[in-house]
Amino acid sequence: xxxxxxxxxxxxxxxxxxxxxxxxxxxxxxxxxxxxxxxxxxxxxxxxxxxxxxxxxxxxxxxxxxxxxxxxxxxxxxxxxxxxxxxxxxxxxxxxxxxxxxxxxxxxxxxxxxxxxxxxxxxxxxxxxxxxxxxxxxxxxxxxxxxxxxxxxxxxxxxxxxxxxxxxxxxxxxxxxxxxxxxxxxxxxxxxxxxxxxxxxxxxxxxxxxxxxxxxxxxxxxxxxxxxxxxxxxxxxxxxxxxxxxxxxxxxxxxxxxxxxxxxxxxxxxxxxxxxxxxxxxxxxxxxxxxxxxxxxxxxxxxxxxxxxxxxxxxxxxxxxxxxxxxxxxxxxxxxxxxxxxxxxxxxxxxxxxxxxxxxxxxxxxxxxxxxxxxxxxxxxxxxxxxxxxxxxxxxxxxxxxxxxxxxxxxxxxxxxxxxxxxxxxxxxxxxxxxxxxxxxxxxxxxxxxxxxxxxxxxxxxxxxxxxxxxxxxxxxxxxxxxxxxxxxxxxxxxxxxxxxxxxxxxxxxxxxxxxxxxxxxxxxxxxxxxxxxxxxxxxxxxxxxxxxxxxxxxxxxxxxxxxxxxxxxxxxxxxxxxxxxxxxxxxxxxxxxxxxxxxxxxxxxxxxxxxxxxxxxxxxxxxxxxxxxxxxxxxxxxxxxxxxxxxxxxxxxxxxxx
Length: 659
Fold this sequence. Notes:
The chain is built from 13 helices and 22 strands.
């Protein structure tokens, strides 16, 4: 486990966090990234510039590995090191001699002692160290962009039960991306799988992660000339956990090894997480500094063989180094759309590597359930209006200040079928899968068959009665109310209302607040834990890989699962209605949860004005009409929360008020 040094200046109460940089270690950011390049002006007629196409070469990967292995040798921590490109292709995995083959998922502690035998979710699982290193590398790559560089330490800060996580911050709301760790799942039907071949689609992304996104320090993004090109992840200490105290500085060997690996490939200092505040708290990038590192080793030949060897990981890579795909190319699986695919010249789409959009705009497939499904023209209009709102909006977690928002937008029908998916040019990759999770979650929980679907799923069935008891509504989850992801997220927190101590947990959360950990959050975890475990057994050669399509929820009449990549429980989606009839869901993810809420809600509203045939849920059935008794008071659920003055081209305020 990491040793800790108390930060005496920042051990005061939570209100002192702002003065301390939100728990920032006050450590200088890693060198090697240089200043942020001057932004390229967008081409005429466009609002966004395309990211520069850059990628990791074999020589680049060799240098990253050599630097990391050298630091691991100096620290005496034999480790497994993974390097990925921006879209999640595993370019290399290096296993040092004596590196532990397995790692334990951290257990929740009660009274300072590990709660052995009381684990829920993924806690206490012994998993392959290779999968830990890969997940950390993917996390660094997927959470980052040309406007923000986030690490697995950043991820740890934003997914826990209180934000920022610390002993003195109990009573504050949960992290803004609470639940994002259960995205990019190995069973996802969106994220691509390693084919093992060399065909045209071998490198298409986004690729899946073996255990979702990581919150354990030791994963960073990799940059070339200010362009994010991949990530590095380290597994060596046999503990896969999270940092639950942001007020001190960790001396973390895995993070130091990863920091050595990114020298010469570090992000520009202006965009590292410790330059980005959220709700008045500065995020965290690294507790380790350049001064903590040993002399840098740069010769791959000096370590390849004497120190360890390249290995292949079943389902992820071969035992060689391969160059990365350049994001934005057909080969990468994400490229700029054609005008035939989407009208907005700034939009990007997912592609199959052979020139075809993976998710072309199409009509709903659920005529058997809704009578009048979404038409292709309606789908196109909703996505166009949402993208227009996105393009006008001020980014919340990007640098420089007053950058345009960058995100992904997904739209589904009531069966969970993808009817369209578009991205802005530099949206972080994680938002692609997450936007689809959000759209599907809103469509499922607002669906008349929601309770039927959950009751037919053993891991989910107990949650139905808990929701009905909690809401004092025996008909809950039968379509009588419309649930946005913010609404379902309210019910998924270990405290209700969010963060407030000595209150009951939400009915979709763990049954006791003390049981919460980032690896056991309640329904979200229980729906997919079995799929993750079976996938890890596949990596070990013990069984076949689970088919695409997370959870054991029954198939829809269209033959697919309504939540085929898991659910999501932080804001950014709304259900779509034709009058009082649910007809789909829209989800947005990538650049601040209030912005995500606004793009989904306001984009759908504007499409409704344009079309006159659909829109947001009627006000009287939105989940914010639900009142929950908490002690001697009542608390309303939330539906959406829009930023106060979000646009770059107008000073308009309260843009969602009254809609």
